[in-house]
Amino acid sequence: MPQYMLRKIGKNDYTKVFLLCLLTSGMMFLPTLLMNKGLFSLVGDFNYQQIPFNILSNRAIKSGDIFWNWYTDLGSNFIGSYSFYTLGSPFFWLSLLFPPFAFPYVVAPLLMLKYCTAGLTAYAYIRRYVKDGRYAIIGALLYAFSGFSTVNLMFNHFHDVIALFPLLLFGLDRLVLNKKSGWFAAAVALNATLNFFFFTGEVVFLLLYFIVRFLAEDFKRYVRRLPAVLLEGVIGVGMAGVLLLPAVLFTLQNPRLDAFLYGPTALIFDGRRYLELLKAFFMPADIMPHQSAIYPSDFTSSGAWLPLFGPVAVFALLIGAKKSWMSRLFKVLVVMACVPLLNSLFYALNASYYARWLYMPVLIMALMTAVVLEKREAYPCSRALLITSVVTGLLAGFLLFYPWSESQKSAVLQMDLFLFYLCSTAAGLTAAYYLLIRFRNARRWMLFTTIGVVLFSGGLGFFNIASIHSIYPWQSPQAIEDTVVKTGQEVKRVLPDREDYRISISDNGWNLPMVSQTPTVNSFTSMVNGSIFQFYESIGSPRDVKTIIPEDYYGLKPLLSVGYAVQTQPRAKQEPYASFFNGTNTIYIYKNPDALPIGFTYDYYLTESRFDHIADQYKHLVLLKAAVLPDGEVNRVRNRMLPLPESQIFTFEKNDYRKDLEARQKESSRSFHHDTRGFTSEIDVDANKFAFFSVPYDKGWSATVNGRAVQIINSDGFMMVPVYEGKNIIRFNYHTPGLTAGIFLSLVSGSGFIVWIFRRRLFKRKMIRRRRPPQQPFLPDVKG
After folding, report:
1. Beta strand 604-607 with 642-643: parallel, antiparallel or unpaired?
2. I want to staple 236 with a disulfide (CB 3.0 to 4.6 A). Which of 41, 147, 149, 185 is the partner?
3. pTM (2 d.p.)
4. Which residues, in sequence order, are bridge partners of residue 143?
5. Position with higher pLDDT, 326 vs 779
6. Using CA atoms in the order 520, 526, 532, 538, what is the torsion angle rounded to 10 degrees?
7. Separation between Cα atoms, residue 157 and residue 94, nearest integer Å
């Protein structure tokens, strides 16, 4: 019996896909893992975002600290901050089986699992369109290991999206073509929960897919399926509400969403972007921070090359089946990729350019390739190969030999890398020639093709990983383990066991406090509370993806309660509070004698309109004198605070700075404690006034003072509450905005999903009951 089961499993195409993807991803990751004793790192965002984010999220979930996170910048909504990176991913929840600090050991196996999942879901979708499942296996490999996957290796969470996206098209096809209910709704729920931002682009793609794939084919037939599609889409979105609603409400605060394309910038990119797009489709994936040509670095995720075949089979189908829905859809997607405004539809019309939706056309390209491979004799593969070769040659020739500027001879920036990618492309075209033309009827054709795809996919993936470690040796797996994980653990050990201070980090992209569990003023993440953006905008130092406090703004350190500075360079005239060697370099920790506790009072206020007219270089000192209020809030503080006199606004001598610090220190928190639901502060004051807390304002906060509910004022992005003469016990509680409504929406939608799935059975039972004839009453036989 076991042998029979093993044979049966071995013949299953899904098993073959999984094992081939496991083999291919093993080629990519195992050499590095063996050389580094299981540790894995890459470069930049992977090391300084993905690793700290997952360590923090793992620990937060296990400790129940899921509402307000104190270790993300100045503090942020945990669900909002990490729904984009970790919380919606089933792979993240799988990582919870391991301790938080084990993530550098766990991440590579998880990436391999994501590649395997991408192959399985792509196979499920492509299988419908080919007669022989072996071609769907090839298509699944091409999708899972495409240039988009390789170029985005440093964005670990992107691979979650790549892995599960095919389920949307699989579910939609089953609903429309087979009238199988539930699959599409479940896929929508899964993808909307997984990553709300990518899901907005997927909705646009699904709309295009339904129009081109179905309505354009047979409008009268398929328009009848539209109500069911819309209903399942709504149910699926509703089921994701528990995470989707809080995430959307949080993200709407982010000013990066406000940028918009105006004028001619909405219609055309510059020439470099079009060259980069061509390179993305015709050549293997580059290394994001170390591009071989055109841009020195490019974080837009431009990559779409299919291993070995590139776009050859895509051109063959475009030429040989011009009226096919696949041809029409691909042409539409190419137009959208080339027009800035249309491209931005996949990112809620955001002005920043990204190509992070290219995994969607890559799946269609993989499908087109599988279809052509199965019927390669029926398609003009020779013409397609010629077109691909000519375009590749022209692109390479232009980048190699055409002057890029007066000082730069060509667009090639890293000649060795570029020539390797070019040679890989040529090798792929040569292999495509033999497989599609010369030996297309060979007896072992499928075996050779599968081996070729596996070697190209695994080999190029390994090359990029090895190149990264060679180019950035200071970000090796062991170095990242030392500088991120071990350093974070040691910083936590040596710092005082108090909660009324924050730390600053010399390297603003480090995200060390997420690992050390220490409140901070620094972070490297786009997903922080909108009020943090408001504060830095107001002082003339707008925040983008990093929080960087200008060195000249020394008044911000006491204002934001920076008690200690962690850095890798010693100070010339100050003894460190502590220092230690982390295995890679020495870490120095310095105490800030001017630090204020989190929570102090103000006697004076300034309106936002007046504050805006103060020169930016003085604002950090003015904030130690007075609280900044919205103009409309003045009446609420009139009996407790005075307007800052004009004569005091521009007093910036060292002596004035000391007086302001003493005034704030005099009535500050004598105790400050934060927990999983908020924080408590105790402040003694000599009169009724307002207490200020450098904790980002959020609509989820509520406050009480001595047990009495009070209203919170937004003071330049922070929070201020009234306090009373004498002792004050101030309690702030946080509840994630949208969470309760999201849970309710998920429960209602989940119930609706169950009813929708079993509606036929329920309806059938009712009909049977109605049609069943009434039973005759039992009459005893009295004849005797």
Report:
1. parallel
2. 185
3. 0.93
4. none
5. 326
6. 120
7. 14
Asked whether 595 and 563 are in contact (CB, 8 A), the reply is yes
Largest Cα span, the chain: 123
| Phi, psi angle pair for 600, to nearest 5° | -155, 170
- Residue 152, φ and ψ in degrees, nearest 5: -100, 20
When mean pLDDT is compared across 18-27, 178-187, 402-411, 453-462, the lowest value belongs to 402-411
Residue 689 tokens, joined: 């006034």
pLDDT for 350: 83
Is the pLDDT confidence value at 555 over 80? yes
User: For residue range 307-339, what is the model confidence (pLDDT) as tens digits?
Assistant: 999 999 999 999 999 999 999 999 999 999 999
How far is 350 from 258, CA to CA, in rounded Å? 7
Provide the 10 A C-beta neighbour count for residue 2.
6
> What are the start-end ranges of the E strands in 706-755?
708-710, 713-715, 718-723, 726-734
Long-range CB pairs of 464-472 (<8 Å, 24+ gap) are 464/150, 464/153, 464/285, 464/287, 465/28, 465/29, 465/32, 465/42, 465/153, 466/31, 466/32, 467/287, 467/290, 467/417, 468/42, 468/43, 468/287, 468/290, 469/32, 471/43, 471/287, 471/290, 472/43
DSSP 66: -
By DSSP bridging, strand 689-693 and strand 678-685 are unpaired
Instruction: Report d(CA 269, CA 256) in Å as an integer.
Output: 20
Specify burial of residue 647 (Cβ count, 10 A radius: 0-12, 13-18, 19+): exposed
Residue 647 identity: S
Q: What are the DSSP E strand ranges found in 486-555?
A: 502-505
Evaluated on CA atoms 419, 425, 428, 433, the torsion sign reads negative
Integer Cα distance of 224 and 229 in angstroms: 10
Residue with tokens 């528990």: 242
Residue whose structure tokens are 């610090």 = 661
What order of strands is seen across the sheet that includes strand 578-581?
A: 502-505, 562-567, 586-591, 578-581
**Contact status, residue 532 vs residue 549, Cβ threshold 8 Å:** no
Neighbours of 155 (CB within 10 A): 21
Backbone angles phi, psi at 297, to 5 degrees: -145, 150
CA count, 13 A, side-chain hemisphere, 244: 23
Distance CA 634, CA 614 (A): 19
Question: What percentage of the chain has pLDDT greater than the value 90?
Answer: 85
Q: CA distances (Å), 88 to each of 57, 194, 243, 357, in order?
A: 11, 4, 7, 18
List the structure tokens of 50.
Answer: 């993905």
